[in-house]
Amino acid sequence: MAQFTFINFKDSTTMMTTTNTTVFKRMGRILSLVFSDYNEARAFREAFLRLVTYAVLFIIGYRLNLVFDNVPDGRIFDGYAMAALFCGLSVLSGFMNNMICIGGCLTMLIFMVIKLAVSMVIGIIALPICVSMNLYRLIKYGDAIINCSIENRE
Fold this sequence. Notes:
Blueprint: H1 9-26, H2 29-34, H3 38-64, H4 74-96, H5 105-153
């Protein structure tokens, strides 16, 4: 005979928060100093991962050389297009993240092609801005994390 268990999510999240708070309280003085700037560490990690993703996509586009084969600097354009596509999709997902398109398979295909084309145009314009913004965050939060860790060691 099968047994079913129903979970009240409100109680489980309250229990999880209480457990996490208790665990962090018990970690001790040294670990609490390390994890005191969690938001700065998260922002640093996100900026670093974005820059690594842009670099990897640029290298993949540079190596594949799919679109601009006969152009003298075609490899650079291909790498920029790959990184711009990801940047445009990430910028566009902030505006169209929860958009619902109702229709058949052809409607969804047309919607995805239009979304990719629009994200490519947005990405070509937004990629230098996103890279410079992530470099700024990397330097800003990296410096804050280093200063925090140096102050806590003394």
